[in-house]
Amino acid sequence: MVEANSQRIVPVVLSGGTGSRLWPLSREGYPKQFWPLVSVDTTMLQDTVARAMGSGFSAPIIVCNQAHRFMVAEQLQAAGVAKPTIVLEPVARNSAPAIAAAALIAHEQDPGAVLWLMAADAAISDTAALSAALDRAAAAARAGRIVAFGMQPTSPETGYGYIETGEPLEGLDGVFSIARFVEKPDVATAEGFLTGGRHLWNSGMFVATAATLLAELERLAPSLLAAVRSAVGEATRDLDFIRLAAEPFERAPDISIDYAVMEKTAHAAVVPASIGWSDVGSWSALWEVSDRDAQGNATVGPVELLDAKNCYVRSEGILTAVVGLEDVVTVVTDDAVLVMHRDRSQDVKTLLSQLKKAKHKEATEHRRAYRPWGHYEGLIQGDRFQVKKISVKPGQKLSLQKHFHRAEHWVVVNGTAIVERDAERILLRENESVYLPLGCVHRMENPGMIPLTLIEVQSGSYLGEDDIVRFEDTYGRA
Prior knowledge:
This is mannose-1-phosphate guanylyltransferase. This protein is α/β, with parallel strands linked by helices.
């Protein structure tokens, strides 16, 4: 499943997070790793895989939520990643089960493969320093160590875990033993860590061979490894994806690799590094790594400022003006607005829980919903009717389907569509339309070279997305 070459490093990218503290941009349906946050033209996932491309690396293993599989595949293709292994988690779990699955898959081809384990949503600005640290970590991994990347702290950060460095390891330049792990400290403790010089931020990046990881999982978390081993053994191929078996994977404990292995193993080591790292875990953290003007403001999108200082202002389309504010975060999407003091960035997660409790759909869903064939977005919704804009990529098609509770009217506004309606096959051009009565079997396809855009008007007693019966689907959806 993975290219076998023990001299190459196998990147393992964990893409299961939801980035809840970056709401309203990051939501469960389209989390932060799929957004261009630090770079203008590339997403966090694309930035991550770009750091692990070239002659020294094998094709990456990406472990992701099965609901995000087509987004992952599309973004990897756009980034020029050849032959990635995309592993689908049937249920959300922490990092240890995901890492165990990746290690088992890599081990099948090369037990000595060196795995570089990383999240899909961190920022790193100094790639030369990263390369040097990775070389040191890989050497230690080949010597049987499980190596953490410890970031040199630049502030008394209370949102990160810390690693206390131990003694230098003989024969491994720039690699140290780990004295202990420290969970997120209070401010006074973090300030002491900063001045003491022995504590590093725990970046969540690790390097180890597949064989070492599996041996330690077998010793320290045998029930977890057994469950994941069954999930991998019973996995199925779904198009270009490896779909882990659901029942055994659900038995795996929801635990991080830190708790399952790193805090217990005698093989733990740390490489101190100063690589311009940030987990971009909050709007305040994103402000810190963004380009800022002379007044300390970072802006994205159509934004105008007057007498504003040290603000982060982002708009995904609507002109947004900020006057006379300092240290404020303002984020505007097409269906939600967040305004807060930058010091309250960690409280967004609490706010999100409140929104979910109140059953606001904006807590988890964007107005634009992505599908393997393209996307759609809601425009207007009223009593017994709904209007959507649908965009279909060239050469793609929707499933052959019918609805029990709604009829639809499609109007093409750009491109060309081929519509199947029961026994008919209809060619639609710009400004042409078709009516799909309730219960008819239908499908739409874009046969052209440009995106197809159409307006869909739904009418009926129930307009939910679950009113769909699929008879045939190119993408293997039920």
